[in-house]
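Repro case for the chain-ordering regression, as requested:
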Amino acid sequence: MRPAASDSRPPPRPPRSLAPAVLVMGKGGVGKTTVAAALATLEAETHGMAALVEFGDGESGKRALGRSHRGVEHVVITAAEAIQRGATPLFGSATVAKLALGNFAMRPLLRAAPAIRELAMLESVRQVVAARPGVRVVVDMPATGHAVAWLRTARQGREFLGSGPMFELCDRVARELVAPGCASIVVVTLPEALVLEETLELCESIARDPGLEVARVVVNRVPLPLSREALVDARALAATEGALARPAAALVALLEAREAASAGAAEALEVFARGPHAIWRVPLAPVDPSARDVARWLRAEGAA
Amino acid sequence: MKDPLVIVCAGGGGVGKTTTSAALALALAARGHQTLIVTIDPARRLAGAMGVPVTDEVTLVPLAAAKGRLSALMPDPRRSMRAFIDYLFADEPEAKARVLSNKLYIGLADAAAGVHELVAMNLVARAATDGDFDVVVIDTAPSRHAIDFVTYPARLAALLGGRSVSWLAGLAQRSGGAAPAPRGLLSWGTGHVEHLLARVTGPNLVRDTADLFGDLALVRERFVSLTRRASELLLGERVAYALVAAPTAAARDDVIFLAARLEKLGRRPRAIVLNRADTRPAPWVSALRAGRGVAPSITDVLDALEEERSTRSSAADGLAAHLHAKLPWASIVRLPYVEASAPEVIVAALSTELDAHLAALLPEAR
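-- result from build under test --
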């Protein structure tokens, strides 16, 4: 595996330390799960223990962590369990909660109303963090649009409900999880113009509502530029009349695409370096890297 | 006139699904089909490259040379909730005004999954009726749950049509009252739930929920017809599913998951398209490697590229074998890794590759 690139970059500012909960966000397919698993691995290597929270079936976190993940506790939260757990104190007892949730009218309502599930999942995360003092909890959040909506449900619910036990639940999530000092946001992005643009929008949007600062930006799959000399030579060959001109032109196109992606990453570094977040880069590998590989690259970027 | 054939492309994020769908549509148009490409989650860069605006209108894609015609439909997800309400409440202006100012609606408008897909399918249905298309390629959202919206409307319709709505609609009046007399645990029923719900959520949520569902119940029929049309288009006889993947463990698991999901809906994927799954070096790489007097800098780069390619290829071999064992009925189409900056260059290259596989991807003629 190749080491992380170390070409010219702005002088690193001392990154603010991460909060107890680390919420990893980014659009689908950028490698969010692997980065989240890598952050948990790194944390466990440095401090002995960490937790990785995943929503759903738990398969992707398990896969990303791989076989050796000493010190990382893998916590899987499913919607049904989260709703049950969140509803128990609201209804006073697990039995009453179960009966109420299983009621003919409640069941379809719960399935159709998305905000309830999201709130319940966040409440579960809050409980996971509260039950593990001193242990950093890395959360593999859903893809971008969804994740932002999740983070807003607590505050929206609080404003909307005004009072009552569910209001109190929203209030607790808003004060103890979705708040500066309680949760840090790590955004994963790719060195492509459009994805970077969306990432900048995401950072601004999170800063506006729910008012969380993006602590770190991980630029994933940064291609290392292939040699400049080869590009010059391939361009010269492409300009000839010979049989190799067309193949050489294809090589030029490929080398230019890589160069553009590297330049895009460099540009991202500049744009993000003006903000308050630290930037970590992870190089492009021909196939999936493991969480441990990514953890090693993140360490080289100053992540631990 | 026959309904068009439909190819639904589904897959996880980051596997090149949108690009593959566009390439497939281009290959079909080049072969003489009157083709429509529908992108549920438009990548603006690709839309820009194809010269297609992100709107609810069907737009003709300018092609240099093709026997057929390529049109595109890329509806804007940010406007679909409003479009949905406009459609449902076309004949109920007063109810519509109430819904649009309902706090619950305002809070949920962004989070309501499946609505955009439903609105998009409504546009597809209209285009399929008006548009004289042979083939429609539908690029779903990049998610394991991209096809769940097929069942989502049915769930909502069940909610609107079932006892829940009348119960909910009456809830606001009743929940202010006292708790009903206890009737024992076995007869634990609706009265308790109402009382508890009001106690837990406070009066605002109950009132706004009741109002919203009361108004939605008014337009149940329009809603159900919308659902029916979406299901016909996606689960009908003339539909084939193509699952798109790349040689990563996440993409592999997404394909298995989606195939199981489809199976539940009574469907099987007709084909699996593997991106970044070259089987041999690109012809231009071989030509350069065999060429005489090629600069050493180029030879070095070619060696590095070939090493990357062989790593990718063996990962793809493993994936193809795994998927074939799990889903033996699906054809596997392997596409090469095309590295270029301009999306239209990638689309064009992949469409040339796909030309040889169209029969494996199209629904079987009936």
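Ordering looks correct now. Residues 21-224+273-300 of chain A form a domain with the Rossmann fold fold (CATH 3.40.50.300).
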